[in-house]
TrEMBL record:
<dbReference type="InterPro" id="IPR045060">
    <property type="entry name" value="Phe-tRNA-ligase_IIc_bsu"/>
</dbReference>
<feature type="binding site">
    <location>
        <position position="470"/>
    </location>
    <ligand>
        <name>Mg(2+)</name>
    </ligand>
</feature>
<dbReference type="InterPro" id="IPR041616">
    <property type="entry name" value="PheRS_beta_core"/>
</dbReference>
<dbReference type="InterPro" id="IPR005121">
    <property type="entry name" value="Fdx_antiC-bd"/>
</dbReference>
<comment type="subunit">
    <text>Tetramer of two alpha and two beta subunits.</text>
</comment>
<dbReference type="InterPro" id="IPR045864">
    <property type="entry name" value="aa-tRNA-synth_II/BPL/LPL"/>
</dbReference>
<keyword id="KW-0030">Aminoacyl-tRNA synthetase</keyword>
<dbReference type="InterPro" id="IPR033714">
    <property type="entry name" value="tRNA_bind_bactPheRS"/>
</dbReference>
<keyword id="KW-0694">RNA-binding</keyword>
<feature type="domain" description="B5">
    <location>
        <begin position="411"/>
        <end position="486"/>
    </location>
</feature>
<keyword id="KW-0820">tRNA-binding</keyword>
<keyword id="KW-0963">Cytoplasm</keyword>
<dbReference type="InterPro" id="IPR020825">
    <property type="entry name" value="Phe-tRNA_synthase-like_B3/B4"/>
</dbReference>
<dbReference type="Pfam" id="PF17759">
    <property type="entry name" value="tRNA_synthFbeta"/>
</dbReference>
<dbReference type="InterPro" id="IPR005146">
    <property type="entry name" value="B3/B4_tRNA-bd"/>
</dbReference>
<dbReference type="Pfam" id="PF03484">
    <property type="entry name" value="B5"/>
</dbReference>
<dbReference type="Pfam" id="PF01588">
    <property type="entry name" value="tRNA_bind"/>
</dbReference>
Length: 808
């Protein structure tokens, strides 16, 4: 919301207060002022000039030589190239020595041999944005309307109110009451304890009635709580006076004509959107407000033909739409220079419908912005009378008696009982009842004392105040937040801590980071093709109703596709070594059409590729492979206390190498998979040799964990025995290790694999597996006999149960 400082003074006396002080005061009271703009961007010495004579430049087809009276003793000669310059015009002239925005200095010059003593200016050259310049002056100089009383030498900067300053309000959604000049005036009246001056609304009416020319009806009173139409005839459409154009321009609205400008002016003044129809172009004597028909066609004022839906509200002439209610009028019934009779619409439309209509039509206007936040429905009549008054004054209109209307407004007032003790306790203040009553009075809220309470009636302009806490806030704002005492919180403090789940989750991330992986975060939305890469059986990707693009059309069911995208992007940018992970949610459902909310499941996935370790001095280099990633996973399971419950099972998995992938089982329940990305998929995605894992981390973190047991540093030495076993090729190392641990007894404290051999000098179908076994007793030194007894039990078990042969 842009608020002109000079215009604001029509409603409240602020002559002794500078705009920057107002901005500071309002910001401290809860309405932030982002900027205070100076309208003058550096222009000086610009005056009104009267073009006495215009002649074609003798040596240039597109230049004219003008004799201009600028209020000095003698006229000056100015060479001007504007296509619309002509004799008999009052124009803006930058005199010799003047400066214009951008630092341009006007000097006496010769143009094609003709002396030029100044410059006839366009509005753009005076610092006014092109989008705010009236269309008739967009390609040329500005010409003062014939109705404007100006004389040569008058200060143009004052006439255009360029000596004004504009406050830019950053309003929150609940403060729609300040989306107009009167609302800001009420706010400042409360802050500075000054009265508000209301605009003139008294209209001279003739005996002829509006209802004799027009009838009004609404289809649904909830959609349209109130609709009225004022009929004004014998108007003359022409440019608005300069003061009106200045005020619209300061507020960021382009002037059009006196009638249309008045509707925009009252919109800014009262916050009440209005619309003027050409009465003769309506095509009937009836206005009916209804829902649009499905796929009904309608052309708005911007010339665009729009296809409407039954969720949109339209104003019709009884047959076809003439306006998109609350958003924009229709092209066929717009006010033109030939219009002599208008219907002035003032209404209250349902905010949700207006917002939906504006969104569906991709057409957000100043009108819809106010309707959708809620207008003061009890000031619609007053705003309409104000507009009728201005049209009567500026366009010479004759207002017909009465209005055509239909009223479904519900009389509802918010009354709040303010308890002084409770309010003081909440705010930490010690205000008296008279002080609070004074603040309420400055807000212009009617109130009366009932016993120990103040009963306050909230005016309809303040729709944001509904409960007593809202009223407490108003008192605090006007009293001044800076005056509220600073106190420490009272009560028992509770120390915050992570839940067991959160702590376990942090352990997982710490383990992955300590292994050299970097976290990435990707979108929760993906494309159907990427979702299909790792789609689980019986699960369907969840489609977005109105996706922003095909690439973000469904919810992801796996983290891996986005990890592939990130990896491909880095590889394309010459970052070949990638060690990344993501911990995030996937969204799963078995329903093809959602009848229930989808299940959100937290998962963790990792991607590794390239050189993991490189010591150039020693000539050591380690590439990412299956076992590197498996080792990183084992570190995660160790951090969670699950190492002994995890098993890997070779399997085939879609998208992974058939001979280098495995399922991950915990307590024999599948919890994810690990493997190399399938070579064909690697090639398709532009990846190098890559390895991934994907875990149902949410289910894993909710498993019962083994309690951590801490042991002291051993006091007695250990005895280590190494064994090399020849076993069948299909016996896994895990099977051997489990048998050794189960038969080794309490003296066996550690088992470590250090060699696996297959090949030359080894019988076909056999392999050699070597383990290091550590024996220790916590309370004494072991003897050879103790170790030999336990070691022999291990060897016997391996021989009898797995046909292992001790290799010499």
């Amino acid at each position: 919301m842009l608020v002109s400082y000079k215009w604001l003074q029509d409603y409240i006396d602020l002559a002794d207060i500078q705009p920057i002080e107002i901005a500071e005061k309002m910001t401290r009271s809860g309405i932030e002022i982002d900027f205070v703009h100076k309208r003058n961007q550096g222009a000086t010495n610009v005056v009104v000039g009267y073009v006495m004579d215009k002649q074609q430049h003798p040596d240039a087809d597109k230049l004219n030589v003008c004799q201009v009276d600028i209020g000095d003793e003698e006229p000056v000669q100015i060479v001007c190239g504007a296509p619309n310059v002509d004799s008999g015009q009052f124009v803006a002239v930058a005199k010799v020595g003047a400066r214009l925005p951008g630092g341009m200095k006007i000097k006496k010059a010769k143009l094609r041999g003709q002396v030029s003593q100044g410059m006839i200016c366009s509005l753009q050259e005076l610092g006014i944005e092109n989008k705010l310049v009236p269309k008739q002056y967009a390609e040329g100089i500005y010409v003062f309307p014939q109705t404007e009383t100006v004389k040569p030498g008058d200060d143009v900067l004052a006439l255009f109110a360029l000596d004004d300053e504009v406050l830019e309000l950053d309003l929150t959604a609940n403060r729609s009451d300040c989306m107009h000049m009167l609302g800001v005036a009420y706010e400042l009246a409360a802050l500075y304890d000054r009265p508000v001056k209301m605009p003139k609304v008294k209209v001279r009416e003739i005996k002829e009635t509006a209802e004799s020319h027009l009838s009004v009806s609404v289809e649904d009173g909830e959609d349209t709580p109130y609709y009225q139409a004022i009929v004004i005839k014998d108007i003359k459409v022409e440019p608005s006076p300069v003061w009106l154009q200045n005020r619209l321009t300061a507020a960021g609205i382009r002037p059009i004509s006196n009638v249309v400008d008045v509707t925009n002016y009252v919109l800014l003044e009262y916050g009440q959107p209005l619309h003027a129809f050409d009465y003769h172009a309506l095509g009937s004597k009836q206005i009916h407000v209804r829902r649009a028909k499905e796929k009904e066609a309608f052309t708005t004022l911007d010339g665009e033909q729009r296809e409407l839906s039954s969720e949109q509200l339209v104003v019709t002439n009884g047959k076809v739409p003439v306006a998109l209610a609350g958003v924009m009028g229709g092209l066929d019934s717009e006010v033109t220079n030939d219009t002599t009779m208008v219907v002035l619409e003032a209404a209250a439309f349902q905010p949700t419908l207006v917002r939906l209509s504006a969104k569906q039509s991709s057409l957000r206007s100043d009108s819809s912005a106010r309707f959708e936040k809620g207008i003061n429905v009890w000031r619609v009549n007053e705003a309409a009378r104000r507009a009728a008054y201005l049209i009567q004054e500026l366009a010479g209109g004759v207002v017909l008696q009465g209005v055509a209307e239909e009223d479904h407004r519900a009389t509802k007032q918010v009354v709040i009982s303010l308890n002084l003790n409770e309010m003081n306790h909440r705010l930490g203040t010690e205000l008296s009842i008279s002080e609070v009553a004074g603040i309420i009075g400055r807000l212009q809220f009617p109130c009366e004392k009932v016993e120990a309470d103040l009963v306050v009636t909230i005016p309809s302009r303040r729709q944001d105040i509904l409960i007593k806490e809202d009223l407490y806030e108003e008192v605090a704002r006007i009293y001044g937040y800076d005056h509220l005492p600073s106190t420490l919180p009272v009560g028992t403090a509770t120390q915050g801590k992570r839940t067991d789940y959160q702590s376990a989750r942090v352990n997982v991330e710490n383990s992955l980071r300590s292994s050299g992986l970097s976290e990435v975060i990707s979108y929760s939305l993906t494309s159907k093709s990427k979702a299909a890469l790792f789609a689980q059986k019986d699960l369907h990707p969840i489609a977005i109703d109105k996706p922003m693009s095909e690439e973000r059309s469904v919810m992801r069911t796996s983290l891996l596709p986005h990890l592939y995208d990130i990896a491909a992007y880095n590889i394309n940018h010459k970052n070949q070594d990638l060690f990344i992970y993501e911990l995030g949610s996937v969204f799963l459902t078995e329903e093809t059409s959602l009848t229930e909310l989808p299940h959100e499941q937290e998962r963790v996935a990792a991607f590794v590729s390239g050189t993991y370790l490189e010591h150039k001095w020693q000539g050591e280099k380690k590439q990412a492979d299956f076992f590197l990633l498996k080792g990183i996973l084992e570190e995660v399971f160790a951090a969670l206390g699950l190492s002994k419950r995890v098993r890997y099972e070779a399997t085939e998995q879609d998208g992974l190498h058939p001979g280098r992938s495995a399922r991950i089982l915990i307590d024999e329940e599948p919890m994810g998979y690990i493997g190399q990305v399938h070579p064909s998929l690697q090639k398709k995605l532009g990846l190098n040799e890559s390895y991934v894992f994907d875990l149902q981390i949410e289910a894993i973190l909710r498993l019962n964990k083994d309690n951590k047991l801490y042991q002291g540093v051993p006091r007695y030495p250990a005895i280590v025995r190494d064994i090399a076993l020849v076993v069948d090729h299909d016996i896994s190392v895990a099977t051997l290790e489990q048998l050794i641990v189960s038969t080794g007894g309490e003296l066996l404290t550690a088992v470590s694999l250090f060699d696996v051999y297959e090949g030359e000098h080894m019988e076909a179908g056999k392999k050699s597996v070597a383990f290091s076994l550590t024996y220790r007793h916590a309370e004494r030194t072991l003897t050879d006999e103790d170790v030999q007894h336990a070691h022999t039990k291990v060897l016997v078990a391996l021989t009898e149960q797995l046909n292992a042969v001790l290799r010499s």
